[in-house]
Structures are given as C-alpha cells and as structure tokens.
Amino acid sequence: MTSKTDHEVRANIKFCVKLGFTPTQTLENLREAKHTSCCRSLVFKWHDRYRKGRESLEDDVRSGRPKKTSTSIQEKVTALLDDDRRLTVRELSENVDASLNTVHRVIADELKMSKVSARWVPRLLTDDDKLRRLSASQEFVKRYRKEGETFLNRIITTDETWLWH
Fold it and tell me: What sections of 63-148 are H helices per DSSP?
C-alpha cells in the first residue's frame, strides 16, 4: 500500500509526462514544489513507466509471504512469555516453530515489548513471605522507637535491579 505523499509525487510525475517534460525537468519541478522525499532514480523510473503508458499510481502487486504473523504464533509466544519471562528469543523460536525474525517481530511490533528481561519475574507472595515482611516491619518500628532518626538514616533502600545477579 502506498502512502499519500507517494501518490502525490506519482501524480505530479504523471502530470509532467502528459505535459511532455523530460525526466530532468520533472525532477526540477518536484524539487520546486518541495517534494524532497523523492530521489532522482525514483523520478526517472516512474517517469519512464508513465511515458510507456502506465496509468495507476499504486505499487505493483508483489509475490511472497505477507509481513503479518499468524495469531497462533502470537498466542504461543504470549503464553510462553507469560509462563517464563527468562526465555530467550532463540528458545521461543524453537518452541513456536518460527524464525528468529518472526519471533522478534511478534515481541516488538505486536506485543509492544521493548525488552524481555530475565532479571525480574513477578510472583505472588506466599504466606511465609508475608509473615517475614510483617516481622521485619515490626522490628523496624521497635528500633525506630528506641533509636529515633539515627536508625532511619542508616537504612539503605534499593530495588532489585541493583542486586548482583
């Protein structure tokens, strides 16, 4: 599918051909009209096509596989990443039976993920985790009551990205 500016440029080239302009004159006219996106070789190519009788402004239909990936591949990649974020693109492509480029395209374009990180995997807190947090918080409160602001000044907080893996 061609863009609106491509249509405009091609329409201008077609118009110049109908007026009898040479390819060089057509290129000069396009540059005067501030169509800076078109290069010399493209103008000459389309000028020749319209001179030989072409009427359409659209691109020719091309053979080959479409750029879209099937929803089944996308669903498989999504399910695998939901289960384990530490999978590499190579492992995903082997499990899904798709190429590396296809898996990259699914991750970046369709799932809108900029990076699959293996460092942090979200998990639910168990009852033991909750109890440990509760006791640690109670201990902090006791020490704060006992030592005051000096205790708070010695606490170092960090997130998991600072930890050595």
Answer: 71-83, 89-96, 100-105, 127-147
